From TrEMBL:
Gene3D superfamilies: Hotdog Thioesterase. This is Acyl-CoA thioesterase. It comes from Campylobacter lanienae NCTC 13004. Residues 63-111 form the Thioesterase domain. InterPro entries: HotDog_dom_sf, Thioestr_dom. One of its GO terms (molecular function) is thiolester hydrolase activity. It comes from the Bacteria. Transmembrane segments: none annotated.
Length: 161
């Protein structure tokens, strides 16, 4: 087991999808080493964590590229809505402080407008209880995969130019 895997195991992130089997509706094929693992979830709420690693480095000082933080927060948003088919259509984010290799970034996501197809999810990211990220994601909930919807549109001759 690598040092990275051991640190994930320490915070309960190894095989986190197995812990939530039966209540997890979202696809679990995502790479948890790049997007984070699930710590806790319930309807309209998720807590996830990302252990930063050398694969995320932006420069020689071991600064983590903000895209990995953004992606991990987006993953938390999707876990909070916990639906099989959804796609992010908008995001407004603030990165308040940088992350470095070895930081554990924890995300808490709260989803709103449960009855709507367009959901809003607020996500806060912290490192050692210091807020480093805050964002609002707009996610559309679909009845089937977005690519299948696009294929149906083409078959029916409704493709827009």
């Amino acid at each position: 087991m690598s040092e990275y895997d051991e640190s994930l195991q320490d915070v309960g992130l190894i095989d986190s999808s197995e812990r939530f089997q039966g209540i997890l509706n979202i696809p679990i094929s995502i790479n948890s080493t790049l997007c984070g693992g699930i710590i806790n979830m319930k309807p309209n709420y998720a807590k996830t964590a990302l252990m930063t690693s050398n694969e995320m480095v932006f420069d020689d000082e071991k600064l983590i590229h903000g895209g990995f933080i953004f992606g991990a927060a987006e993953w938390a948003a999707h876990v909070a809505i916990n639906t099989q088919y959804s796609v992010t259509i908008s995001a407004k984010v603030n990165l308040y402080a940088p992350a470095k290799v070895g930081d554990l970034v924890e995300f808490e996501a709260h989803a709103y407008f449960e009855e709507s197809k367009k959901r809003e999810i607020k996500v806060i990211g912290t490192i050692k209880d210091i807020k480093v990220f805050e964002g609002t994601y707009q996610v559309v909930v679909l009845e089937e995969h977005i690519f299948k919807l696009q294929q149906k549109k083409k078959v029916n001759g409704e493709e827009e130019q």
